[in-house]
Structure formats: structure tokens, C-alpha cells
TrEMBL record:
The chain crosses the membrane at residues 6-23, 35-58, 70-89, 110-132, 144-164, 228-255, 309-340, 360-380, 401-421, 441-461. GO terms for cellular component: plasma membrane. The keyword Kinase does not apply. It is found in: Cell membrane. It is a multi-pass membrane protein. It comes from Paenibacillus oceani. GO terms for biological process: alginic acid biosynthetic process. Belongs to the membrane-bound acyltransferase family. The keyword Repressor does not apply. One of its GO terms (molecular function) is acyltransferase activity. This is MBOAT family protein. Keywords: Acyltransferase, Cell membrane, Membrane, Transferase, Transmembrane, Transmembrane helix.
Amino acid sequence: MLFHTPEFFSLMIVSLVLFYAFPRWRIPMLTVANIVFYIVAGVGNLILFLAMTAFTYYCSKALRGSYSRFFLWFSIIVNVANLLFFKYTTFLIRSVEKGLGVSLLTENSFLLKIVLPIGISFYTFQMIAYLVDVYKKRWEPAQSVFHFWVFISFYAHLVAGPIMRGSEFMPQIDNLRKIRFSADNWRLGAFFLSLGIFKKVVLADYLTPHVDSFFQNTANLTGAEGWIAAYLFAFQIFFDFSAYSEMALGIAYFFGLELAVNFRTPYLSKNPTEFWRRWHITLSNWIKDYIYIPLGGSRNGEIRQFTNLFIAMTISGIWHGASWTFVAWGMFYGALATVHKLYMMLKEKLGLGFLDKSRIYQFIAIIVFFHITCIAWVLFRAEGLRTALSLIKRMLTPQAFNFDGHYLFLGIVIGLFVLHILEYFLHKHRTGLGVWWHNYFPAPVRAILYTAVAAFLILFLKGEQNTFIYFQF
């Protein structure tokens, strides 16, 4: 069920009415609402999700007993196996077939009929984080299986994040009865929901057909066209994914709940470390806390640190999809992060740390790193690793930056980057802008403008509705 559909808004309105009308019944009501939301994906998917939720919950209860370590690893292995089976089985078998030159799957094989359950990558990581945190006594097990179900399946963040931790979200679930209506929360909710809808239906969905047309003809693209395709996809996936996250924030605020921020204008990053602090923040933190640090982090010397960093980023790439392009994408960022660490060490030894304070240096670093990010997006989006590498090779030729005949698209890209900068200032000065808005614009004027924005978005919602890109991950 897509957020920007009448069916979803109907579910949300009914849920909100019941939520505030019957405070004592909030856990049962959200339990049912989450089931209704997810059952649209299929009864089989719902049964699997319910089974994994119950399994994880009862294993977490055993993490306080004598066999806690056994139940920790048993529950993690089952969760990972569930993800591997549905997401990677066919990919692994096809890779073996290609490597050995044999045929293992027939056209009627049931493995080819496996459908990836929506949201499985997100709820699996959330369950693993919960199990580890309970085991390490960072958080107590949920009060009941229903509390745990609402924590895992809250429909605002279920399908594409953010990935919530027990310490962040479980206290809010436990205190649902105490939540009271707040005009401030509803204003924040309306702001984030409207921003997300605007990004999705006005920006991301507008870019989608253009991006598809470029990447459907990847083999025939010139280097300049490759850059245009990469630029457009960079903004398409950002607007699409951040739209979902911001809609999720807005919906949660309506219920008096607060989700983690997942994006902070990532294309203003100056290096890979900063990028991953701004892009898909909850996944980046998950990878750091549950992969990188357990591997040893930076505790055992530089070589081990670089190795751990490379492994962690490669796993991040694999998490995104069952394809060698995603593996290469993760490895690319692993290598990039390692090179950046070496560069920072060299810069410090040469006494060039003062460059970081230079506005000109920062501007150049942003532009350069944005283009490096776009190269990575080609790996992410292209159909096949060989196709991606061939296009990147053309993009790195001197004539690739001759954009004759493509100035319209180049102008669109520049406009999108300006919007990105405006979004940065909007978030940075949100509180001050809110005060200014209410002080200088009377309520009737604000009401008219709110109505105009709502009408504008509704008009766009009547068009073709594309699913969110990250639904498939």
C-alpha cells in the first residue's frame, strides 16, 4: 500500500480517529492497522512476517536465561537465513550456473517463483538490532508480543525504514496510552508529509521516465549522456527515498511518535564519511554498530581498520540487492572510504589541515565528491556489471563533459541541486522560519496557502503513481 494513495489515507484517518478516541486500545488498534497495511502485499507475506516476529520475540525473552548466547545466535541465524532464502537464493544459484557452466534451475523451478516480501530487508535488520541490544542489556525485552509487533511493524516505517532501535522506539510504544493530541506535532506531521509527497509525486516521479529512458539504452549512451543519466538518477533516488522517510516522519508525528531522521541533504557532502552520515543514516549506523565495530572497528591497527571498513561497506552493498552491481557498489564505497582515510592521514602529515576551513576547498570538495557519487550510482542502476563499467569508462573520457544538445537536462540538474541547497537551509532554519511564518502571516492567509498546497498535491496524486524505489530492497 503506497503512502500517496487514497487507500492509505483512508487507513491513516481511521487509525488516527480510533487512536485518539480510545487511548486504552491503542496497542490492539495499531496491531490490526499494521496487519491491514501489510496484508495488501499478500497473505503469504503477512504470515511469514507474523511468524518471524513471534519467533524473534520469544527468542528475545530467552536472552535473559542460562542459554542466552545460544538463543542469540540461533535467532540471528534464522533471521538471516530467512532474508537470504527470499532475497539471494536465485542470485546465488545463477552465479554458480554461470561460474560452472551448468544449468541448475529449470523454467518451472519453484525457486524462480519466489517473490521478495516487501520490507524484509528492513524488518530483518531491525529484529537483529533488537536481539543484540537485549542480549547486551541495552534494553529490556518488550512487554508483550503485541508491543513487539507494533514496534517492528508500525506501518509508517515498515516498508523502507528508517530502521529503528529498541532504545529509540520501544519506550514510545510502551507509553502509547499517555500520548495526547499536540498541535505542534500535527503541524510537524503536515510539514513532513507534504514535503514527502511533493518530493515523490512532483520531483521523483517526474524524473522516473527520463531516467528509465537513458538506462534502457545504456550501451548506446555517450559519455555526456552517461553523466546526465547519472545526475538524474542521483536526484530521482534521493527524492524518492527521502520522500518515503519524510512521509514516515510526518505520519508518526500525527500519532505523537518520533522516528529517526534518515537523510540530511547528502549531496552537500565533501567526502564518503560525511556522505554516509547524511544518506540512509539509520542503515549507516546499523552497519557501523552491528558489522564494523564487532569486526574490530579501528581498534587493531590501520590495516585491520581498512579491512573492516571494506567488509562493512561491501555488506551494505549486498543488503541493497541480489546483483553483482550492488556488490560492486558496496566495494566501491569501501575502497573510497579507505582512500579517504589515507588522504586524511597524508593531509595531516603534510600540515594541510587548514584546507578544511577554506570555503573554496569545501565547494570544490562538494562538486568533486558529487561526481564520484554519480559514478557509484551508475553501478547501482545499470543492468549488469559489464554494462555499468563500460558506461563509466565512456564517462571518464575528456569529451564526456561536452554537453552540446543536452543543455535542457543540464539546466534541470542545476535546478535540482539548487533545490537541494534550499532544502538544507529549510531544515537548518526550520524553527526560525516557523516563527517568522506565524508572526508575519495571519491565520486566514496561512489557511489559504495550506489549501492551495493541498490542492496542488492532490492534483498531482491523480496521475500515475510509481512505487518507491526502495520497496524492492
